Amino acid sequence: MKSKYLPLQVEKYVQNFWKINNIFLFKDDASLKKYYCLCMFPYPSGKLHIGHIRNYTIGDIISGYKRLEGYNVLNPIGWDAFGLPAENAAYCNGVLPNIWTFNNIKVMRRQLKRLGFSFNYNREITTCKADYYKWEQLFFIKLFKSGLVYRKKSYVNWDPFDKTVLANEQVLDGKGWRSNVKIERKKVSQWYFKITEYASDLYSDLNLLTEWPLKVVEMQKKWINRLDGYDISFKFGEKFLFFNFFLKNLGSICFLNTVFLSNEHILLNYFIRKFFLINPVIFKKINVVFKKFSFNNHIDLYDLNFLDVIKKNSFLNLFIKIKKKNLNYLFLNLLYNLKSFRKSYKFSLKDWCISRQRYWGSPIPIIYCNNCGVLPENEINLPIVLPKISNMTFTSFSFKKNIGFLNSTCPLCKSNAFRETDTFDTFVESSWYYIRYISDLMVKKKLFKWLPVDQYIGGVEHATMHLIYSRFFHKVMFDFGMVNTKEPFVNLLTQGMVLMGGTKMSKSKGNIADQEDIVVKYGADTLRLFIVFAAPPEQSFEWKTNGIKGCNRFLDQVWDIAFKVKSFCFDVNMDFDSLVFETYQLELLKKFNFILDKIYLNIFKTKAFNVVISLFMSILKMISSFRVNSNVDIFIYKTIFESLLVLLSPVVPHITHYLWSVVLGKHDLIIYQKLPIKFNFIQLNDDVFNLIVKVNNKFKKLLVLSSKLSDSDVIDIVLKDSDIIKFVSSGFKDIIYKKFKIINILVY
Ligand SMILES: [Zn+2]
Prior knowledge:
Elements: H1 7-20, E1 34-39, H2 50-68, E2 72-74, E3 78-79, H3 84-93, H4 97-114, E4 125-126, H5 130-145, E5 149-159, E6 164-166, E7 171-172, E8 175-176, E9 184-193, H6 199-204, H7 214-224, E10 226-236, E11 242-247, E12 256-262, E13 274-278, E14 285-291, E15 309-310, E16 318-322, H8 329-336, E17 341-347, E18 352-353, E19 355-356, E20 366-369, E21 373-376, H9 403-406, E22 407-409, E23 416-419, E24 423-424, H10 426-430, H11 433-436, H12 444-450, E25 453-459, H13 465-480, E26 489-495, E27 498-500, E28 503-504, H14 515-522, H15 524-533, E29 541-542, H16 545-567, H17 583-606, H18 609-624, H19 631-648, H20 653-663, E30 688-695, E31 698-706, H21 711-720, E32 732-738, E33 742-747
Parallel strand pairs: 1-2, 1-25, 3-4, 12-14, 25-26, 27-29, 30-33
Antiparallel strand pairs: 5-6, 5-9, 7-8, 9-18, 10-11, 10-13, 10-17, 11-15, 12-16, 13-14, 19-24, 20-21, 20-23, 22-23, 27-28, 30-31, 32-33
Helix pairs in contact: 1-20, 3-4, 14-15, 15-16, 16-19, 17-18, 18-19, 19-20
The chain binds zinc ion (ZN).
Zinc ion binds next to loops.
């Protein structure tokens, strides 16, 4: 190859090498420490967008550094393939959902490979395959047998467009989160997971999630919402009935004159529209009024200035209005009526409705028998496979008309029985997929070894639903003895969005950067580099094309220096400890050490990969301006450059592989290298020191100076430095010098 950087040729060559040599296939190496890095898996829409690429690039970089650190890294990918969006899109595109889904997976897998992600494709999972959902069905049966599943006829959120029930979380401002049409209330039999049974653990174990973003923990706290208060019994007008309430503030009871109940409340079946209670404190009438409430169950009662009273175990549908008077009654009568009060707490979290009346999902393994009632399918009959449909009439498909599927045998009395025709909500699949990556056969030993996930990366939009459901699954599995940790994800990183024109890129707004165009023009390495250089991972950033060009130029320079290093034709097997360095060489080595410390701090501690890239750039700048006059110079130059290549390899894997193996002719692959370590100076000690130069508190540059200089000499050198002089050309207010450490020049 010519000595010009041609990314497309380089990337094609390297990807082919990886493929032939199975470089990224996962091997469970017992001799190494494990590291499990997980990116939220995509729904196979058919096209990778920049948001995906940001997510996977961050994950790939973390995986890469962990490999260099010596870990056995699991870095898997799969497909969240069931669900309404796929079914609707298939319908719109005139194809069957399975064909649509598998075609999209093929396209997206090719796009992932083109970007050089080091995913373990031998651990790929697809949730719409029976070898995935059979485990889910098995787990459901376990839950059923443990009493954590129930069926209930209740008012549900009915999406008239998608013709299915939605969870409360999937209703936004009274509209379906996918369809955006107004949600209706309908009474339907539904399957529920008793997630409320775990509300207390889900809430208190948030304390264990010290490596999660605080905002996510806060969102979950708010979602589960523990309310401390009192259970209060009200007597009805008639003597025979008691009516229990949860009241947050006991004192407010004596101001109470009206209670609002949802008009879906069961009491409406027993009473006319208006009746009254007797206030147990002041023995006055409390009017009860039935009222229509919004579906949004996250009205903040405090903000609305209502007394926060919630009937126990019901939809958040009860409000008590108060009037501020008669405060004096309170304490006298409280004591008197003590029997009516009990200290208590409750959670806002509701049980999770998991059944959907749609085709494209995992069948729920339940049998209806006329003799035995509702019971789970026999485990040996799993998986209950979703019936195949063969023509485009699938929109009118009905399980109830599919006799082959519907008719079954009762596992108990062996008489004829029917199958459940609802399917699982797709959130069921995504609640446990991180476990499926580990072991085909769900071997306990493997799960114990590989869990928890060490690093999880995904969008903050999953802070509540997905991340609460997975925590729930994990806790149940822990109680079943299937896993040995209480929480599934140790570290969580929620990456920011990629914006264009200040808003999130979206097809409907037409503000999309086509990643394939960029890859064709600049190569995958440039795109990966740009995406992490643009901002810290958690922050959103604005897409800028000139930023991409800058990253491309940086790789051009890396390329050119590699050829310069190659041209030295010099064997570097020098014994570092026996070398005697000149001051200018020492300066370079010390500076490298200093930068390396900062690099590792930012990789492993703050994960500020944008800072890491800028530090790589300063290393490159540093050696580009280093004049090579002797063999020791060559040794230094070459050693630092090779370290830079290794450090760069997780970010830009193609160019670094190529330069390392092909141009520099190294035998061991770059991905099998170890993280570079600092130069060890025994002979030179403190002859020089690193001085951080700041102007108006902002870092400008690092100087390496002799320790023998006086303070005034140091200041003099700084002020005359070619990079600093421009800032002080019109004078300065003050100079703060911390000996051998920092100098800060305050200018006007
Ligand atoms: Zn039976």
